[in-house]
Structures are given as C-alpha cells and as structure tokens.
Amino acid sequence: MTKMRTKWRTSITKIEPNKIIIRGIPIERLIGSISFPEVVYLLIKGKLPSEKEARMLEAVLVSFADHGVTPPSTQVSRIIASTGSPVNACIAGGLLAFGKHHAGAIEHAMKLFQNSVELCDSEDDIPEVARDVVNKYISKGKKIPGYGHRFHNEDPRPVRLFELAEELNFKGPHMVFALEVEKILNELKNIKMNVDGACASILSDLGFDWRIGVGMFMLGRLPGIIAHIYEERTKEPPFRKFFDVDEIEYEEEQIFRPPKLKTPE
C-alpha cells in the first residue's frame, strides 16, 4: 500500500506561477502601499494594523535598532567580521548570541504581563496584582524582567515610547500594568523600566503572543548588527585583537588527578 505524503499547510503566503499572495493580498498591491512594520504585522497576525497600531509597532522596532558595541551580539558579529567571514555568517553569529541573558528578557516580560493581566477582571485590579507580583519577586530575590539596566540608570527609550502612546491615545492594560510595576519598584528600590519592559507591554497590547518577543527584537536589531559588520570590515584591520596576551590571566585548575603509582620494591 502506497503511503500518502502529508502536505505542508500554511495560511501565510500562497505561491503560484507569476503570483505571490500574502495573507490573501497580492504582493503587488502591498508594494508601495504599506510600510515594513505593517507587513510585519500582517504576516504575523494575519491582518493589517490600524494607523495607531502601525505607528506603535514601528516605534518598537526603531527603539531596538542599536545599542553600540556594548551588547554581546554586536561584539560577536564584529569578531566574526574581523576574520573575513561572509556577511551572512556574521549576522547569524550575532543573532545566535541572543539568549536568556541578552534579549531574552522581552519574552519573559511579555509572558509576565500577559499572565498578570489575565488575572484582572478590570483595570481597577491592576494595582493589587502588580503589588503582588513585585512582592513575590522581591521575596525570592529575583529580578523582574523588563526593569533595571546594566548601563542606564534611566533608559531614555521607554519615556519616548510612552509619550508616543499618550499622543496616539494607545494605552492598553499591559502598559498600565507595566507602569504600575515601575511605580512600585521605583518607590522601593529606585529601579525603572528598560526598553524590554516598555516594548513587552506595547507588543502585548498590540496582541502579540509572548513567544515571538525575541523575534521582534531581532527584527529591530538586525539593521544595527549589519551596520556594525560593515563598519568592522571597512574601517578596522582584519583579525583585530580585542585583547592583548598580557591582558589574559591563566588560572591552572587541576581537574584530573593522576593515580598514585606504587614505588617499585
């Protein structure tokens, strides 16, 4: 008996000879008609955003654009670029550097915000739930994702993002929750929200699932990584030294201890 092949199924893009249909819309109708953030929204959510939603998503992507040579992902990309590797390898190395301690906070924050808001019957419940969350994290000695920054005492990006949200009258429950947590943390520990927390709340109010958080961060950071790769390849000597030999301290650690041999009689 011949086993039937299972067909691939997708509702994202349909490809036919001389035709490309994205979420039911021919590609030629999209080109020149919508912005890149709008097509990102369309691809992931399956519908076109409103003007406010498009503006907020665009602001999120811009806020992620670059953070100098300080992030590990940028450093990895530049190190790979200095070896003469092709640009795709340099980009891949940078993106693979995203993990739990770099870029991972946005997904943790989105999950926290979305789960917490689900516990609220109305916005009146948000302050109490926010207080419970803060107390829970503090009692366990854990850092709340989306708050505090290793470099900035006050990250300038959340301030502008929330200003724009006010200008557009775009302020949903996740944003309200995130700001309430910041208010409590600021009073207790002088800790403010970082860009991950701000964008996590905005993306949650835009209806994005927390599991695509790092993907959205990658979309925003990619232009910055490409710029650093290009700068490294065109302005720095190849195989650039990031450390001199005398800056490296070797610590001998004896992991394997050879067995004592009997002395011959």
Short description:
This protein is mainly alpha-helical and 265 residues long. It has helices spanning 27-30, 36-45, 51-63, 72-82, 87-96, 105-118, 126-139, 156-167, 173-189, 195-205, 213-235; strands at residues 13-16, 19-22, 25-26. The protein has 11 helices and 3 strands.
Explain this structure.
- The protein is mostly helical and 265 residues long.
- The chain has a domain of 108 residues: Cytochrome P450-Terp, domain 2 (Cytochrome p450-Terp, domain 2), CATH 1.10.230.
- It is 52% helix and 4% strand.
- The protein has 11 helices and 3 strands, in the order βββααααααααααα.
- Strands 1-2-3 form a 3-stranded antiparallel beta sheet.
- A hairpin with a 2-residue loop joins strand 1 and strand 2.
- Helix 3 packs antiparallel against helix 8 and helix 6 packs across helix 9.
- The chain is globular and about 85 Å long.
- It starts with 12 loop residues before the first strand and ends in a 30-residue tail after the last helix.
Termini separation comes to 76 Å
Question: How many E-type strands?
Answer: 3
Q: Please tell me the overall pLDDT.
A: 92
The SSE order reads: EEEHHHHHHHHHHH
In which range does the helix fraction lie? 40-55%
